[in-house]
Amino acid sequence: MQLRRRQILALGSLVATFPRAALAGDGRVVLGRFTTTYSSEAEHKTRAFNVELAAGAIDGRAIAPGATFSYNAAVGERTAAFGYAKSVVLRDGMIAEGMGGGACQVASTLHAAALMAGLDVVARAPHSRPSAYIRMGLDATVVFPKIDLALRNPRGEPVTLRARAAKGSLEAWIDARGVTRPEVSLRSEILDRVPFARIIERDRAIGDDKAHRTAFGVPGYRVRRTREVRAEGALARRDVRIDTYPPTNEVLRVAPSFDTSRLSGPPEDPNAEEPTPAEIVVAPGATRPVLVQLRPTTVITLDNGVW
Fold it and tell me: Is 167 helix (H, G, I), strand (E, B) or coil?
């Protein structure tokens, strides 16, 4: 399924919006804009705080012609000294508690806006698994100081980064004064889907009647992102990026004597008695993946056209 311009994408918690040609009253032109959503409920308040703090750190940053912007330099180290709180983070493909959770969502939203604005992406790394808030190929993970998002301004005039985060909506855009907005189109296409494996852990504290799912499995994907930038209708440049998201294994914890054939289909011997299927219960703390991670749309096409 392809989603074209003048639409709002709603993929899980992902929302992409396209800007008007200019912001009224100040002569500034929006080159590209992108919006994602985040939870602002009480249980996610620390992550929401981090999102809003990081968004404020990049808002108003100007990039001179030919200059490069560093996300890590602008946002700073995600520690308590810089005002960040503990929240959930993605570590080695798994959800865990860590400092500054939410900073990657701001980086991802800015990265998508920069792509739509025609900026050069000097440094960027994808996450280790699909994100719930943004399309694969558009995300950007950041880890201070090792992994950065760096953006270069290829234009002949300065551009300014903007970001707003409030009430669960995060918006990033790039604007400039008295310029012509380039025509930019993005195409994100899933090339391959890799199934996840099931890992069995034995635990004497688990009863023999049930299997406890401590981690949900998420398929892996290989994604191709193509961007075309046009000036006055002519193709100015085209860049292609292929990202790989390895699968995240499902983990089940069972008793030492548990018969794992109860978790699969019928036995290989057709004359054997079929075991009673086991009940799988979700262990406390297991994070459920969302639909956009399990069954993402195969192809999405975006552009920075006007509504």
Answer: coil
Domain-located, residue 272: no
Residue at 270 is within a domain: no
For 57-67, write each residue's pLDDT tens digit.
999 999 999 99
CB 278 within 8 A of CB 211: yes
* Dist CA 110 CA 115 (whole Å): 9
Task: Read off the DSSP letter of residue 143.
Answer: B
Strand partners, 230: 183, 235
Cβ(75)–Cβ(109) below 8 Å: no
Q: How far is CA 165 from CA 53, 112, 168, 186, in A?
A: 9, 16, 7, 24
Q: What is the token pair recorded at 167?
A: 């009430």
For 153, list phi and psi in degrees, rounded to 5: -90, 110
Residue 140 in tokens? 């950007």
pTM summary value: 0.85
Range of the domain at 99: 9-251+281-303
- Number of structural domains found in the chain: 1
| C-alpha to C-alpha distance for 306 and 304, rounded to whole angstroms | 7
